[in-house]
Amino acid sequence: MRVILILFLILFVIISSLFLTTFFSQMASSREDVELAAEEPAGDESISIIPSIKPDTVSEEQGLENPSQNGMGSSDTDTFEDEDDRIAVQEIPETEEEQESKVTAEQSSVQDGEDPEQDTIKIYLDGDMENGIYLGAASYGIDSSRAVELYGPGLANTGFRFKWDSTDLELEPGSTHFLYIYYYNTESGWDYIRKEINITGHKPGDADIKIFIDEPVEQKAVEGLTNIRGWALDIASLDNTGIGKVRVYLDGPMDFGRQLGDVDYGIPRSGVMEFFNNENFLYSGFNLSIEDPGLEPGSKHTLFIYAENSGNPNLYNFEKTDIYISGEKEQKAVIKATVSLQDLVSDNMLYIEGYAIELGRVEEFLQLQKEESSTGQAAEISNSPEDSQSSASGGYSVKKVVFKSNRDGNDNIYSINIDGSNWQRLTDHNGADIYPEVSPDGKKIADTSDINGIWQIVIMDWNGQNKRQITHNSYRSAYPSWSYDMKYIYFEAYLDGDWELFRIKSDGTGQRRLTHNSGGHDWHPSGHPFDSKIIFESGMPGHDDIYIMNHDGSAVSRIFKSHERRRTPDLSSDSTKITYTRYFGNNSEVYYADIRDQNEIRITYNGDWDGHPMFSPDGKLIVYEERSSGKDDLIIFNIETGEKTNITNTGHKDSDACFMYQK
User: Fold this and answer.
1) 316, 325 contact by CB (below 8 A)
2) pLDDT tens string 418-468
């Protein structure tokens, strides 16, 4: 019994000793963690130099691992104007508000799936939130003069600013990268935009290595990404294709984008062999079948396809192609950003600034503005008897033509009564204003305005008041046309070497590309009078014709059975007739036709240039421009009587006309 008691006491002492040792060890470890945390920077914004973590070549299976939470860049609370300020930005004392924001950003682990506790901007390079290189969090809540200009002083504190030192990532001269700018709003969640950046210099690669991509088809919307195929060869090779390996990356170049699986190279391509008349090029095909990565509907992505020389992997070339996932991306915010590359070459610094606003707040402001504008317009109409025509004429109190003229030296938008009286100038700024289009209710005008050397779409009231820019693209955006319900503006944009069609909500949100036709221009859109469809012109110059499609870019079909060169279409209000410009060599004439029997009726026989016809809202008149003796005049054609009336008849260039009727 005594022996058992002694053994029990010994066992108790041993267990107690182990327990106390573990307890004090944990206490010491916790204290050390607290001390280390106190010495850590207060958040993403405090990291101004990129750690030396240039990513290794991504694995065949997974691509890049998610980078660390802290990222590589920093928010920049100073302006971008002074070089000394940029260098010393981290020495600027921070307010308690800024420090609190940083702590919140630090605690909001995107990678861990935890949402931030306040509005936040996160920035990634060459991939989305799940696959990109995390650069850091921007300073958010800065006053934005641009947001105030567009949406009023109530949304002033929606600006953000960010700087990034790219030194250790070694962005290759001539390379293309993509920034993913994410905005988190506590009410609606995450949304993002994608910005392309092109590094100054020549595109890297060996010109002897040729790559062609068969699938996915360039600039064509796809349901998902499951197969990539094409061919690659080195024309300098004498014994075989000269290619040792093909690699495919998503949304970024080699070592930056996400690598997609193992590419099968060496597939027979007899057509390639025959084209080059070289039997060594038979096995030049490649194919990559992957599990669909689940890319977001409505999103745009870029594939980078590399081919390496079989004898020297350092000799390579690459091609890239854009892919579009069908569907519509859910928009939760309005995000605009300007990326400054000016200092990227000289000191490896990239600067980003812009604004981000929850979509509901924008819609609330625009609805209020619309209500106020409608009230003001009603008062103006009632106080403008000189602009009124007989209300007995089809129930319209106002009948005007809106057009572009250079009568005051610069291209501006004017209005004129349909009898040629009462000229009124509606725009007046240093850049040109062209291609006006009146809304279906006659209360708004969209036009193309030259802003800082780039064409943008602007909306104003029917009398020229309350001008508002709705596109802010880095490429030319032109020739706006309204949807029947005034919800959208359709327009053409020049990028990738040709014109493509876009749509944007009339409040300036939700811009979306509709066509992806690298084989010719898609342009001169015209909204259907009562359906969600677009009539437009498509084809290479000299081979244009008129097409119709749904306003999401689907179901494209040609309207006319005969192959003639037709341009600038417009539908009558009942959609039974179409008017257009038809070309005969370098000359053009105006026609209209019945959609059903396609019986074409020629209106003009000028022998010079007549074009750009538009129907009146009641379908009784067509206005077009007539070129003669070096000047352009506006002619109104009465469909019933065949009478033509020159309503301008000046020595100036008057063109781009459309009707403005108000009830």
Assistant:
1) no
2) 999 999 999 988 889 999 999 999 999 999 999 988 999 999 999 999 999
119 contact partners, CB below 8 Å, separation of at least 6: 140, 141, 183, 184, 185, 186, 356
507: which residues sit within 8 A by CB, 6+ positions away?
362, 363, 366, 470
Q: Are 404 and 435 in contact (CB under 8 A)?
A: yes
Task: Output the pLDDT for position 435.
Answer: 98
> pLDDT at residue 549 above 80?
yes
For the record, the structure tokens of 150 come out as: 């567009």
pLDDT tens digits, one per residue of 37-85? 333 333 333 222 222 232 332 222 323 333 334 565 656 544 333 332 2
Structure tokens at 268: 């027979």
**Distance in angstroms (rounded) separating the CA atoms of residues 581 and 623:** 12
Contact 214, 230 (CB under 8 A): yes
Residue 114 carries which DSSP code? P
Please return the burial class of 10, using the count of CB atoms within 10 Å of its CB with bins 0-12, 13-18 and 19+: exposed
Residue of 152, 147, 148, 122 whose CA lies nearest to 134: 122
Contact between 251 and 258 under an 8 Å Cβ cutoff? The reply is: yes
Q: Which helix (H) or strand (E) holds 181?
A: strand 176-185
- Domains in the chain: ranges and CATH: 44-201+331-358 (no CATH), 209-325 (2.60.40.1220), 388-662 (2.120.10.30)
CA distance 123 to 502: 26
Report the Cα 60 to chain-centroid distance in Å: 31
pLDDT at 380: 42
SS3 sequence of 272-284: HHHHHCCHHHCCC
**What CA–CA distance (Å, rounded) separates 9 from 12?**
5
